[in-house]
Amino acid sequence: MKDTVISARLISWRHLRLTLFYDSQVGEIKPLLVYDDSGRKVPLSLVKGNSTSSLSVFEFALPDDFELGHPAFLEIPSLGRVPVDVSEAASFEGFDERFSYTGELGAIYGKQATRFCLFAPLACSVIVMIAKRGEERYELFPMDRIEGGAYEAVLKGDYEGARYTYLVNNSGAVARCLDPYGFSSSANGRESYVVDLCRARTKKKHAGLPVLQGYTDAVIYELSVRDMSIHPGSGIKHKGKFLGLAEPSTKTKKGLPSGLDYIKSLGVTHVQILPMYDFATVDELHPEKSYNWGYDPAQYFVPEGSYATDPDDPYCRLRECQQMVDSFHEEGIRVVMDVVYNHVYSWESSNFEKVVPGYYFRHRRNGRMASTSGCGDDLASERPMVRRLIVDSAMHWIDFYDVDGFRFDLMGIIDCETLNRIRALALSRKKDFMVYGEGWNMGGEVDFPLGHMGNCRLIPGYAHFNDRFREAAKGVLFGDESKKPLLMHCIAGSCAEFNAVPLFPSADYSVNYVECHDNGTLYDYIRRLRPSLGEEAALKACALGLALVLFSYGIPFIHAGQEIGGSKKGVENSYNSPDEINRFDYDLLDAREWMYRFAARAIALRKKKRFFHHYDARCIYNLVDIQDRSGAIYLTDNDQNAVAPDAKLEMYFNVEPIDVHVNIGQGAVLLLDSTGEGERPLGEGKATVPALSPYLIAY
Fold first, then answer.
1. Helices and strands of the chain, counted as H and E runs
2. Residue 27 has pLDDT above 60, yes or no
C-alpha cells in the first residue's frame, strides 16, 4: 500500500485533522497550510496523533484562526497537497456572528446592470454562469467575496430574461447550483432566470376586501390548484393550472357553478391553497404523469411550474399565479398560502446544502441530521441566514403575490423567534393578515422554543389546528359516546373550563376541523367505521360534521369536497395518489346539490350571527352553557349586547341515529336544520331534531 493522504479537515478555527494511509514508517510529518490564491504558507504544530497498522490520524494547531474564502491546501513533504475540507466550519462556535449578510441577495435586475449576490461563506470561489435571453452560449463571471461571507458580481448590460446558475467551490468540490433567492426558473428547476419584477407584475383590479375584525370572522376553505380545477366535469378550460382558478362563469354538467364561482357561491372568506411554490416531484413539462400535493419544496421564491401554462417562460408562472390571487380578491376572497418552511424534499440534492454545506439543516447533538418531521431533514430556522431566507421568502409572497395569510406545515419544528418575526412584518403590510399552522409538538434536541401548541403564548396571534376537536368530533360521529364530553369542550372553543383543561387562551387560537388534505375523508371514515348507517344517514352525518365545524367557537376550516361528502376511495394519505383520488368531484356536486346548498346556507349563517364570533374565554365561559339533552348536545349563548338582533341562541347537535324531541319557547326562530332552508318562526311547544342533524334557534 502506498502512503496516501485521505483527508485534511478543519475541525475548529485553529485545528486541522490529517488522516492518511501508510505502508511504511512515515517519520515525522511537518505539513504546511497553504493559501493558494496568495501563496502564503502557514506552519502547523502537532497536537496529537494516533496510529494503527495502516492508518494514522494527526491533529495540528494553527497559530491564528483559519481564514475561510481562500483555496487552501495541506502541503506534506514527499506526499504532496490535499485540499482542506472546511465543511464542518458552519458548526463552529461564533460562526453565525462572523458570517451573516444584511445586503440584498439574489439577482437584482437593472436595465443598465444586474447585481448577483450569494451567501456562501465556506466557498473559496463562486462563478456565475449565465446565458442571455435567446442565446445558447454561456459566459462565466468570477464573483468577488465581500463582507459577511457573501459573493457578488455586477454585470453591465441588460440581462433581463437571462438563464443562470452558480458554480460554487466548497473545499475543492464544485457544485452547480440554482439561486436560493431566484424569483423564477426554467421547467423542473434546471436554471434560474433574471426577471424584471416590474415587468412581471400584473395589474390589481379589485377595489378592496371585506373588513375582517378578527380570526373568528374567517371561514377557511382548503384546496389544491390542481385538485379544484382538473375534473373533466368542471367546465374549466385551464385544468390543473393557476388560470383554471381564475376563470369566471364556469359550470358543471348540471349547470351549477364550478371553480372560482363555486367557491364564491359557498361564501367562504379565505381559500387556503396547498403549496404553490416550486416543489420537486412533479415533472413540470409532463404533470399528467405524476401527482404530489407539494410538501416537497425545492425553491421558496418560485411558483410551481406545473401550474403554469408554459413552465419554461420566466414570466408565465409569476403572472398566472398573480392572476389567480387577483381573481379571488376580485370576488372578496382572501388567499392563505400553505408554506413548508420546516424541511425540503432532499437535503442531499438541495441547493442549500450545495451552497453552504452543513448550515441550513438542523443537527442532533450526535452530529446527525435531525428529521423530526418524518418528511425530510429539518431546516435550521434558528440560524440567522436560514431565518432570513424564510422571512424574506414569506415577505416576497406578500409583497409581490399579495397573499393574505400563511398556513405553516409542521409549525412545531420552526423556532418561535422566526414565527414572531414573520407575523410582525406581515402585519406591517396587512393588518388583517392571518397566521396559523400545525402546532404539533414534534420534540427535537433544541434549547430554544419551537412553535407548537404548548408554546402558544410565546407566539401570540398564531392559531393552531385543533386535533382535540378533530378526534372528539370524529369519535362522536363514529358512534363513540365517550367522546361527547370532550366534544362539548371543543365546541366551546377549547379555551374555557367545560369538561377539560383549556387548550388555548382564547377561541381564536383554535382552528376547528374534522377533515383536511392529509386525513382520510370524513365520508370514508363514517362508511368504514359505522357501516350500520345507510348512505343517506352517512351523508347526514357528514353534514352534521360540517355544522359542528361551522358553529363551534373558533376558526372553521373546511377541506374542499367535505361539504358534499367527498371520497378518496379509502386512501388516507393521498399525497402522491392520482387525480382520480384527489380531485374535487364536480359530478358528485351535481348529484348532491342539497349538501352544497346546506353548506352555503350554514356558512352564511355563521358569518351573519355575532354569537359565533365570540373568542374571549371569559366571555364564552360566562355567556355559554353546554350540556347533553336527550342524547343531543345542547348549547345556549345569551348575548348581553343591548343592540344585538338576537338575545339568545340555542343549538342542538343530534349525534344520535334517532330523532330527539325538545321544548321550544315563545318567539323562537329556526335558523337552520338539516334541510338548509331559510329562517322561519317556530310555534311554542315541542319540536323534533332529526337524527344526525343540527338544529339552530334564535330568540
1. 16, 34
2. no
**Distance, CA of 299 to CA of 236 (rounded, Å):** 28
3-state secondary structure of 685: strand
Q: Are 505 and 457 in contact (CB under 8 A)?
A: yes
Place of cell 355575532: 610
What is the tens place of the pLDDT at every residue in 623-659? 999 999 988 999 999 876 655 667 899 999 999 999 9
Contact 335/405 with Cβ under 8 angstroms? yes
Mean pLDDT over 175-193 rounds to 98
Work out the widest C-alpha separation in the chain, in whole angstroms: 105
Q: What is the DSSP string of 402-467?
A: ---EEEETTGGGSBHHHHHHHHHHHHHH-TT-EEEE-------S-SS-BSSGGGGGGSTTEEEE-H
pLDDT of residue 672: 94
Mean pLDDT of 410-434: 97
Place of cell 494553527: 62
Q: 551, 469 in Cβ contact below 8 A?
A: no
CB 357 within 8 A of CB 363: no
Radius of gyration over every alpha carbon of the chain, rounded to an integer in angstroms:
30
Please name the helix (run of DSSP H) or strand (run of DSSP E) that holds residue 49, with its range, or none.
Answer: strand 45-51
CA distance 531 to 384: 53
Q: What is the mean pLDDT of residues 2-18?
A: 88
pLDDT category, 24, cuts 50, 70, 90? Answer: very low
Q: How far apart are CA 273 and CA 406, in angstroms?
A: 10
Q: List pLDDT tens digits, range 492-535.
A: 999 998 999 999 999 999 999 999 999 899 999 999 999 999 99
Contact 69, 59 (CB under 8 A): no
528 compared with 5, residue with greater pLDDT: 528
pLDDT of residue 643: 57
- Greater model confidence, 306 or 498: 306
Of 227, 296, 438, 639, the catalytic one is: 438
Q: Return the C-alpha cell found at 671.
A: 335558523
Return the higher-pLDDT residue of 32 and 683.
32
Q: In this structure, are residues 15 and 33 in contact, taking their beta carbons and an 8 Å threshold?
A: no
Cα–Cα distance, 463 to 252 (Å, whole number): 35
CB 380 within 8 A of CB 309: no
More confident residue, 385 or 375: 385
State how beta strands 113-119 and 125-131 pair: unpaired
Separation between Cα atoms, residue 608 and residue 368, nearest integer Å: 53
Q: Is 409 among the residues known to form the active site?
A: yes
Strands 184-185 and 192-193: antiparallel
Q: Are 685 and 653 in contact (CB under 8 A)?
A: no
| Eight-class DSSP state of 124 | S
Residue 609's contacts (CB-CB under 8 Å, 6 or more residues apart) are 646, 649, 671, 698
Which of 191, 227, 247, 409 does the annotation list as catalytic?
409
Of 679, 676, 678, 669, nearest to 687 (Cα)?
669
Q: Does the predicted TM-score (pTM) go above 0.90? A: yes
User: What are the residue ranges of helices labelled H in 120-251?
Assistant: 197-200, 225-229
